[in-house]
Amino acid sequence: MDPAPPSSTTHLGWSNVAIGFAFIVADVFLSVVLGVQVGSSLFTAAVRCVLQLSVMGLVLQSVFEAKHGLAVTAITLLLVSLGTFEVVINKSKRRFSGMTPAVFASMVVSTVPVAVLGTRFAMGISPFWIPEQFIPIFGMLCGSTISGIVVATGFVLRELQENRGNVEVYLAFGASRFEACKPIVVEALRLALLPTINSMSVIGLISIPGMMTGSILGGASVDQAAKLQMVIMFMISAASALAAITCTVITLMVTVDSEHRVRNDLIQTDKHAVWKGRDRMIKSIMGGFRNRSIRLGPGPGGDERRSLLVNAEA
């Protein structure tokens, strides 16, 4: 009997994931040995990756099976909302008043049109909202816009705080707020789009991108995989640029008002309210444990527990 032909696909289990995770563990160990203090961040990000992708796999499987436009719309809004949360709460060291709706609007006006038009016309998929094609593409666009928005808005807010005098000189000589801030905007957009431009410059020459690799592993021809990757890269670049430009303009409209005043009072550098609330909750819980321990009577183990509590507080 002739042997069975080799399969073009591989079924991966959690043991395969564990082997891949071992590379992260090795890097964490190396970080601890060298004392470079990136091990905890790397490990936390890896754990988040496992949890988030596991949950996403369960959710998307249901959406793919439903094949319903409303389900696709719900996932789209969820991805934009989570992206906004990531930008405003996790990634931004500086924020401005009204940043949450500004980031949400910037992501919507950049990702939705590019995803819809690109999927329908550039990729020739009809209807455009077929879950198996639209949702992965939209997710990639959201991921690319996050980095662009964070870099652009972060640079603008930092410059307005640290070099406020330069902007006010232009304003004092009659320049509009956009004219006065033009050098800042140009540099912010250059920094925001630099990773995307560099990626397009070396793609296919030095690196084989993820979408092309996935298509080839999925059985597509190399020619079709290359064309698909071209379309995806153009869509990512367009969405990143549009999101960065939109959010930068909104940032300037808020932080430099219509009276041509730099409003540094609208820029916050402290912890976000979400993390402040988390810290207060943890402090309240720990305070409750301390109070309960202090009220312990002289029963068995009471003195020992109080002694441990005093030592822990010291």
TrEMBL record:
GO cellular component: plasma membrane
Transmembrane segments: 12-33, 70-89, 101-122, 134-157, 191-212, 232-254
Subcellular location: Membrane
Keyword line: Membrane, Transmembrane, Transmembrane helix
Any Pfam family matching the protein: UPF0014
Membrane topology: Multi-pass membrane protein
Keyword Membrane tagged: yes
Family, per entry: Belongs to the UPF0014 family.
PANTHER family: PROTEIN ALUMINUM SENSITIVE 3 (PTHR30028:SF0), UPF0014 INNER MEMBRANE PROTEIN YBBM-RELATED (PTHR30028)
Protein name, UniProt field: Uncharacterized protein
Organism this protein belongs to: Hydnum rufescens UP504
